[in-house]
């Protein structure tokens, strides 16, 4: 849909972001011959591509979630390879374990596709690294000035004191978090005081990570054998799709804490039947997006999913040439969480 | 402020009444005594005069956050609340100050009459010393508009529980005239101020909607039936030579209705009447849309007085010869009421709301069908031996309303809601067919379940045709049955008519957009009701 003059390294097609010179796609939403994958969330990985290229640590995710193994090629961060004359390398995006920005270079022209990213180090995903480029493709999930995250230490303090309070009141602490990313971040930062019980979808991923050499604190897989009063004394982590389900209600005095950037706004907190909302996000906040973009020194910024129109208008106003593009990203993972990317009309289809 | 901020958070996150009451009880147990009357005033809508106007506050917030105005507006439409938007876009605070709530409120009141520069300095300083949640509360203190899902009844129940006092006494007390900085929490609970106050009204006795067949209510002889009038429920209080007219919204509306001022001379002292403020011309009740010309006006002109003269249809008497007679049976109170009204020298303005004679439920059901001809909404059923309850109570009083009118429409615009629904398209505009055109007929934002809202939301996301700011034009495909209470001519609306109380009755998934009603259908209805 968008045609860039001569030098364009990427174009936005109806299959996804395409690099003509290298003849490959980045996070395509329809099957292609060669797909470069930024990270393992469902809106960025489609089943059915002939070949996949991703970071070493995204491989266990593709295997675990999509059964992809033989046709998956991997790369560590900062290692350049050549695809049909295009130099390609991966840089950490700080979003979830294995998440990468894809750097392309061809005849001196550099383009970076960032996938999803956050600038704060979360203790488990390799820290975000700004990469200088001519063209930068950025998300804008939280591209409004109302989103300003607190440092994660502060949020984890709030979560811990909420859990302690639940314990006193005999309530079961249930944290709602995406299986990939948020769950591991919670496990890493909350481990120690209480046993952590995790849903199958999280336990499976954790096993994959363990095989790939990622060290995660110990957790307990939730099985029918585990007694409910046992979990009452611990922390239960489940994906969003289960938060309103019958199983949660069957726990002893369930107290539900939703961990998501959308919780920064009261409407987001109140919509869900949550008892607490913690604004803990794996995406960059307003300031994070702006600082990341400025650090790239890019001449042109394409804004994909999120507050695309508003964010790209603002970039243009502050002198950074920008354009919004329609993609099928933004449905995130697992199931919808209320308030998620409701601006994106294609959200429903990308699930 | 910290304790209050905690209370607000607890109230917001809970959707169970019991949890909310528990949060209020523990607040009234633990909080600074001086804060409590302010909190009660705030939750019951006793608003102090706004010290700084909204436009200035917004302007300062935009200035301080360094974002363009359009971006602030976009943020606002995403958040759905101005106070919260400001709290979120401001740069992080550099200091931390913990002042008690009453001090903040007092300081804000003192800004009244200060120069804009002084106000700005104060507000900016405050913002710079509060965290996001506290800023949000501070901004709400400025606007005085704190709607947090605490009804008067819930608040009263919590205070009654905390103080172990009778809830109707507390309701009395907090509904009276008092000023937070002149009263202590203890005095407020004790109701020290209400005896010396001539104006205080009684809590209204309210009825639930009748959900069963009236036959299940037993013998007809135990019941009194009246028309359910569609006006403003009001209480007229005459004590010590003073007259007060209260609306059900606990607002004093005495000045709005000069036609009723003769009651100051003619009602005996120590009388409180319950009734309905209506527009009555030549003895006939006029439609609500006629009455509406007279509501919330600072001045009333001659033609309004002429076109929409006010009458008061009395239902009940709550105080007589300075005695609270609410515990007497209705049959007894009605006798007193008949006497009071017949003793008035000025006739035809304050009237008895007639009792409907009936000897069988079938007969009453027939009469009910004629409600609309009288501009009534149906029938009220009150047990003859019922006391005048405080608030809503099941069993003694029932409202038996006629079924609303309905019209099938198609959704053409959607807009995101506010507050809890700020991220969802929840406000819809509906149209009927007018030849080849679709013409807007109503806006409604209630009546769907959360699940249905999600479904509509995803439809809007997929089928948006155009954007106008926060509004989306959508493919005219979803058919909704809209219920409404009345219809009136309107020059302001393109359709030339306006619906009263429109709301979504049902989502007609079984109907297609070409099966909706036409403008002519509605015009016919309009003609038949005038």
Q: Could you name the CATH topology of the largest domain in chain A?
A: Metallo-beta-lactamase, Chain A
What's the alpha carbon Rg of chain A, rounded to whole Å? 20 Å
Distance between the termini of chain B: 55 Å
Let me know the average pLDDT of chain A. Answer: 89
Structural class of chain A: alpha/beta
Weakly predicted, low-confidence segments of chain A: 1-6, 333-351
Major sheet characteristics of chain B: 7 strands, mixed
Average pLDDT over all residues of chain B: 89
DSSP summary: helix tally of chain A: 9
Number of strands of chain A: 19
Radius of gyration of chain B over alpha carbons? Answer: 26 Å
- Major sheet strand order of chain A: 7-8-9-10-11-18-19
What coarse outline of chain B follows from CA principal-axis ratios?
globular
Order of secondary-structure elements of chain A: EEEEEHEEEEEEHEHEHEHEHEHEHEHE
Biggest sheet of chain A, in brief? 7 strands, mixed
What does this structure look like?
The complex is a heterodimer of chains A (351) and B (530). Chain A has 351 residues and is of the alpha/beta class. Chain A has 2 domains: 11-146 and 283-350, Metallo-beta-lactamase, Chain A (4-Layer Sandwich), CATH 3.60.15; 152-278, Rossmann fold, CATH 3.40.50.10890. Helices cover 23% and strands 24% of the residues of chain A. Chain A is built from 9 helices and 19 strands. Chain A has helices at 59-66, 152-168, 182-190, 200-211, 228-231, 246-250, 266-271, 286-296, 308-317; strands at 11-13, 16-19, 24-26, 34-36, 51-55, 72-75, 81-83, 86-92, 100-106, 109-113, 135-140, 172-176, 196-198, 220-221, 235-238, 254-259, 276-278, 300-306, 322-324. Chain A has a 7-stranded mixed beta sheet with strand order 7-8-9-10-11-18-19, covered by helices on one side. In chain A, β9 (100-106) and β10 (109-113) form a beta hairpin. In chain A, α1 packs across α4 (200-211). Chain B contains 19 helices and 23 strands. Chain B is globular. Chain B has 3 domains: 2-143, DNA ligase i, domain 1; 205-401, D-amino Acid Aminotransferase, Chain A, domain 1 (2-Layer Sandwich), CATH 3.30.470; 405-529, Nucleic acid-binding proteins (OB fold (Dihydrolipoamide Acetyltransferase, E2P)), CATH 2.40.50. Helices cover 35% and strands 24% of the residues of chain B. In chain B, a hairpin with a 2-residue loop joins β8 (310-320) and β9. Chain B is α+β, with helices and mostly antiparallel strands.
């Amino acid at each position: 849909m968008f045609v860039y003059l001569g030098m364009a390294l990427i174009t936005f097609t109806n299959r996804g972001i395409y690099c003509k010179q290298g003849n490959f796609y980045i996070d395509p939403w329809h099957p292609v011959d060669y797909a470069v994958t930024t990270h393992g969330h469902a809106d960025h990985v489609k089943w059915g591509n002939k070949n996949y290229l991703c970071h070493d640590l995204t491989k266990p995710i593709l295997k675990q979630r999509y059964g992809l193994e033989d046709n998956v090629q991997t790369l560590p961060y900062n290692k350049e390879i050549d695809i049909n004359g295009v130099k390609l390398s991966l840089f950490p995006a700080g979003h979830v374990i294995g998440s990468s920005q894809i750097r392309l270079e061809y005849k001196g022209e550099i383009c970076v596709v960032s996938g999803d990213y956050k600038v704060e180090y979360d203790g488990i995903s390799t820290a975000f690294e700004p990469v200088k480029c001519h063209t930068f493709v950025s998300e804008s999930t939280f591209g409004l000035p109302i989103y300003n995250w607190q440092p994660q230490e502060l949020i984890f303090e709030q979560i811990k004191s909420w859990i302690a309070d639940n314990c006193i009141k005999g309530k079961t602490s249930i944290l709602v978090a995406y299986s990939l990313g948020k769950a591991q971040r919670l496990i890493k930062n909350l481990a120690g005081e209480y046993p952590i019980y995790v849903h199958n979808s999280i336990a499976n991923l954790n096993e994959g990570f363990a095989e790939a050499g990622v060290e995660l604190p110990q957790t307990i897989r939730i099985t029918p054998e585990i007694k409910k009063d046992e979990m009452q004394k611990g922390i239960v982590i489940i994906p969003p799709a289960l938060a309103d389900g019958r199983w949660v209600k069957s726990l002893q005095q369930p107290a539900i804490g939703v961990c998501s950037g959308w919780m920064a706004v009261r409407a987001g907190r109140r919509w869900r039947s949550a008892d607490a909302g913690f604004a803990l996000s794996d995406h960059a906040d307003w300031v994070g997006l702006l600082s990341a973009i400025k650090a790239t020194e890019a001449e042109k910024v394409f804004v994909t999913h999120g507050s695309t129109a508003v964010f790209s208008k603002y970039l243009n106003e502050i002198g950074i040439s920008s354009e919004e593009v329609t993609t099928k990203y933004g449905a995130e993972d697992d199931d919808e969480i209320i308030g998620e990317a409701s601006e994106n009309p294609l959200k429903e289809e990308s699930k | 402020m910290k304790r209050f901020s905690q209370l607000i958070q607890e109230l917001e996150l809970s959707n169970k009444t019991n949890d909310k009451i528990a949060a209020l009880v523990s607040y009234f147990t633990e909080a600074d005594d001086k804060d409590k009357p302010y909190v009660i005033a705030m939750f019951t809508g006793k608003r102090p005069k706004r010290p700084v106007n909204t436009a200035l506050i917004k302007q300062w917030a935009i200035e301080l956050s360094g974002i363009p105005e359009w971006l602030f507006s976009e943020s606002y439409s995403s958040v759905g609340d101005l106070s919260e938007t400001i709290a979120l876009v401001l740069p992080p605070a550099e200091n931390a100050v913990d002042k008690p709530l009453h001090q903040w409120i007092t300081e804000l009141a003192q800004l009244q009459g200060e120069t804009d520069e002084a106000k700005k300095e104060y507000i900016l300083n405050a913002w710079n010393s509060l965290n996001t949640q506290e800023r949000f509360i501070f901004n709400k203190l400025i606007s005085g508009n704190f709607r947090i899902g605490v009804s008067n009844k819930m608040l009263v129940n919590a205070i009654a529980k905390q103080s172990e006092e009778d809830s109707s006494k507390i309701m009395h007390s907090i509904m009276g005239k008092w000023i937070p900085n002149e009263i202590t929490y203890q005095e407020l609970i004790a109701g020290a101020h209400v005896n010396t106050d001539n104006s205080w009204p009684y809590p209204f006795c309210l009825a639930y909607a009748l959900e069963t067949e009236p036959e299940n209510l037993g013998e007809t002889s135990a019941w009194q039936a009246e028309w359910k009038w569609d006006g403003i429920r009001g209480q007229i209080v005459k004590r010590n030579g003073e007259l007060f007219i209260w609306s059900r919204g606990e607002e004093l509306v005495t000045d709005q209705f000069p036609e009723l001022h003769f009651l100051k001379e003619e009602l005996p002292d120590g009388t409180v009447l319950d009734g309905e403020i209506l527009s009555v011309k030549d003895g006939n009740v006029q439609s609500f849309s006629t009455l509406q010309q007279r509501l919330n006006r600072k001045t009333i002109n001659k033609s309004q007085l002429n076109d929409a003269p006010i009458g008061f249809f009395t239902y009940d008497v709550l105080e007589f010869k300075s005695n609270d007679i609410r515990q007497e049976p209705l049959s007894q109170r009605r006798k007193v009421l008949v006497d009071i009204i017949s003793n008035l020298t000025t006739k035809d303005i304050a009237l008895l709301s007639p009792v409907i004679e009936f000897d069988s439920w079938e007969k009453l059901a027939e009469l009910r069908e004629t409600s609309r001809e009288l501009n009534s909404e149906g029938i009220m059923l009150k047990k003859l031996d019922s006391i005048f309850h405080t608030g809503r109570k099941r069993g003694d009083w029932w409202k038996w309303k006629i079924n609303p009118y309905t019209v099938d429409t198609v959704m053409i615009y959607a807009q995101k809601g506010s507050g809890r629904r700020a991220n969802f398209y929840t406000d819809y505009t509906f149209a009927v067919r007018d030849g080849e055109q679709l013409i807007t007929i109503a806006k409604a934002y209630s009546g769907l379940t959360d699940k249905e809202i999600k479904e509509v939301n995803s439809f809007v996301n997929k089928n948006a045709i155009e954007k106008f700011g926060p509004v989306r034009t959508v493919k005219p495909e979803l058919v909704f049955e809209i219920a409404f209470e009345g219809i009136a001519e309107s020059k302001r609306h393109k359709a030339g008519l306006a619906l009263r109380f429109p709301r979504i009755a049902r989502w007609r998934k079984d109907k297609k957009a070409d099966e909706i009603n036409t403008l002519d259908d509605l015009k016919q209805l309009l003609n038949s009701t005038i």
